[in-house]
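User: Can you predict the 3D structure for this chain?
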Amino acid sequence: MVSPSTTLFLSLLLYVSFFAFSSQSESKSQPPKVSLELYYESLCPYSANFIVNHLPKIFSTDLIPIVHLKFVPWGNANLQPNHTFICQHGPNECFLNTVEACAIDIWPQLGKHFQFIYCVEDLVNQQRANEWKSCYETLHLDPEPIKQCYNSEHGKQFLFLGYLVTEIVLLRLELRYAAETDALKPPHKYVPWVVVDGEPLNEDYENFLSYICKAYKGSDTPKSCTKVSYITEVKAKNEPSVCNKEREEPTWRKLSSKLSSWLHKMNLGDPF
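Assistant: Here is the predicted structure, written as C-alpha cells:
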C-alpha cells in the first residue's frame, strides 16, 4: 500500500494542477508555454527518483501555468523487427512503460496522468514495483480503461527468437514514443533525458527549474524565477545519476539475458 503521506501529497498535486490549469484556461492572452519533455523508462531508478523527488517542484511553485509538461515512456528500449521491442530492464519495464503510456492517453489531463505515473514510480523508487496496481485504489481510478487500452486492437503478441520465448507488448502508443525518442536531436545518451524548449539538459537535468525560467518569454515573470539561480555550467559528477544506453550486444548474449529474464517469474502480472 502507498503510505498516507504519499496519498496526501498526491491529493495536493491534483488540487494544485487543477487550479493552475483552470486559471490558465480563463486567460487567452498567455505567452507561449515553455516545453518540458521527460524521456524516461519506468524501471530506471534515476528516472523514478527524478519523477518522485524533483519533478513535483513545478506543482509546488507558480511555474506550472507556464509549462507544457510531456512524458515520453520509452527511454533506452530497442525496437526490433516486426515492431516488437525489448526494454533495458527487461519485460517488466516494457509492461509498465506501456501501462504508463496508456494512462497518458486515457487521462490526457496533466493533473491526472501525472498522479498515476508518480504513484507507480514512487513504488519503483521504494523497490515495490510489483504493488503498482494499488495506485488504482489509492487514486480512486477505474482500472478498466487501462485494461482496454492494453488489450485492445493495439494488442499483444509473442516474440520467438530461437529457444527464447518472451512476452513483448506491441502498442501503437509505445511505437509513437519510440519514434519521438529516436527523432531527438541530438540523440539521447541516457535517461532521464530532460529537454526544455528543445534544449537537452544532459546531466544537469535536476536544475530544470532554472532552465524553465531562462526559456520563458513572457513579461509577467513568475516569482519563483527570482529565487532560482541560473546555471551556467554543469558540475562534474563522479557517478552520473543516469541509466546509460547499452552498447549493442552480440546476439547470443542478448538471447542468454532474455532467456534468464523469462525463467524468472514475472511478478508484475496483468493490469487485472
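The first strand starts at residue 34 and ends at 40. The longest helix spans residues 4-26.
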